[in-house]
Amino acid sequence: MWSYKNPVKILFGNDQYSSLAALIAGRSYALVTYPEASFQTLANQLSTTAGTPSLVVNDIAPNPDCRLLSEQSARFAALASQPEVIVALGGGSVIDSAKVFAAAAGDFGKVLRFLETKNGAEELSAIPIIAVPTTAGTGSEVTSWATVWDEERGRKFSLARENLYPETALVDPALMLGKPYGLTLATALDALSHSIESIWNVNANPVSARHAVAAARAIIADLPMLLRDLGNLQLRSRIAEASLNAGLAFSNTKTAIAHNLSYPITLGWGVQHGIACSFTLPTVLRSVAGIGGFREASLKQIFGDDLAKGADELTEFLSSLGVGHRFSDHGVPNTECGRIIDEAFAGERGKNFIGSKEHFLEAATQSGVLKLSPA
Q: Do 201 and 353 contact (CB within 8 A), yes or no?
């Protein structure tokens, strides 16, 4: 038995941004975005067609942190009434922040209590969201959760609520033109990780797997070309569609072990999320060879019948983009690897993984990814 559900209405196409006012449909709205001039231009266009927003939050951090989210949420409390809809215009950090604001409705404390204790769900709000992604990577426009960081305490939370799916995802690849090489690379590799992680996942189903295969194949084929031609709108569109497919895949499965390995590496060594969650993919792929069923069949649609060879080719693909496949390539000392791996497999996302820690360690040591000291 399996099921698949995604309630988000999707509008995809160049210049779809012009339809945003019609989606707001006269409702009062808050705008969550970035402070850069290009986003201010888009915000001005929206104000002309949809009216002035009741609130603009434009100081979003790359990894939304509890302290800043608390201060930003308080701005909603200062309004005479809560907005009828939140427009999230930006990358994954913007959309994730908008979900936090939607749940908090001015009181971040109730969100934090829920994150820490899993109690108080009935107190959380759910202001509707229109998500307008300007990067191709996180898939947050079609998921019901948001990543929340607590850098002071070295923690990471996932705010997961069914009523936090955006009501609409407006994906306009033209908005992604002009994004620099590093951001384009990291976000696309995040999408690649989402797609593959949704396959070697206990929650995988045949529909999510088909979305995942389409996403991974497109990213592997098209990302190197896009990185050589950042102004190519057709390639931007292909990667945007791939990211969307990856989002539709892991919206039903969540992520797995590669993401759980990544979180302490981002917190402890400052490795950008899309890099941190993708450099271990070849090792994980080697470790799941032989799992069988539609999961292995799906992986073979991406990497070929010989998954060991596919893992080698994935390593070469990442290397060609400047991404090493060893922990040491990202500044993580060998002495920390055992702890990171143990904690990753014990965590929630680690338990989503269809494979085992033993097979991962075997694959990692045999391929020279890491050298663990004897117990």
A: yes
